[in-house]
Amino acid sequence: MIALLWTLSVLSCTCALAALGVSLLVTRRYRELRALVTDGAARGPALPAPGTGIPPFTATTTEGARLDRADLDGPDRVVAFLKTGCEPCRDLLPELRGALEDLPAESPRPIVLVTGVAGERTGYVTALALVAHVVESDEPHALTGGLGVGAFPAVLVAGEGVVRRAGVGLAALDPRRPAALRR
Questions:
Q1: In the beta sheet, which residues pair with residue 82?
Q2: What backbone phi and psi angles, to 5 degrees, belong to 153?
Q3: What is the pLDDT of residues 117-135, one digit of tens each?
Q4: Which H or E element spans position 125?
Q5: Rounded CA gap, 82 and 115, in Å?
Q6: For a 10 Å CB count at each end of the chain, is N or C smaller?
Q7: Beta strands in the chain (DSSP E)
Q8: pLDDT in tens, 1-60
């Protein structure tokens, strides 16, 4: 009987240690993924690095204005990437609108690319049309793919033809950075 109890105790301890090991591995991986997605300084395949050149692109805004690569050759301009069905994108919308409204009047008008299901883009367009050039697309836009944007919501600051800063959420809109974004 004592041998049976001893065996059960050893098995229980072994199972507990295995569960602890799995928990530690899962926690470590979770932290790595969370840092990649939420840390504005994080880089990887999801966001372009500072200095990345802006690829050629053309786009038509919801107001009918034509945009292209030359529009990002001048002073620093905010460019945001949102996707329908992305809960963080939807949650960021009011804060993004407020940040874009607070940009100085002399700043170039921001550009927001919204991809996804057409019927779901309407809320994004309505919320942002007064503060930004909004570009809608059923598929990922050429600029999204050309820059390697794979994390949403992504916000970057581009100027003189290159990415200055990029982050998930509003991390790239640090008001201590370029004069064009100071309040």
A1: 114
A2: -75, 135
A3: 888 999 999 999 999 999 9
A4: helix 118-128
A5: 6
A6: N
A7: 58-60, 66-68, 77-83, 111-115, 133-137, 154-159, 162-168
A8: 888 878 888 888 888 888 888 887 777 777 666 655 544 444 445 889 899 999 998 999
